[in-house]
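Board notes (copied after class):
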Amino acid sequence: MKLAIVNSLLTSPALELNLAWLYAAPAVGGALIVLYGLAAAFAPPPPPDVFHGSGVAAAGND
């Protein structure tokens, strides 16, 4: 994030985009990935499969 703050006054030559957006985007994306991973790690396990072993067969080999 320090790089985003340092380059907040610079713009890209072609698109005139503020370079702070370009340097901050990977940091924000990484933080979101960490939050998603933590949520997945502490989520309760899924319920058991109710259709497992119910005898439903696919069409084909009758």
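Comment from the instructor: The chain has a mean pLDDT of 81. Helices lie at 2-6, 19-41.
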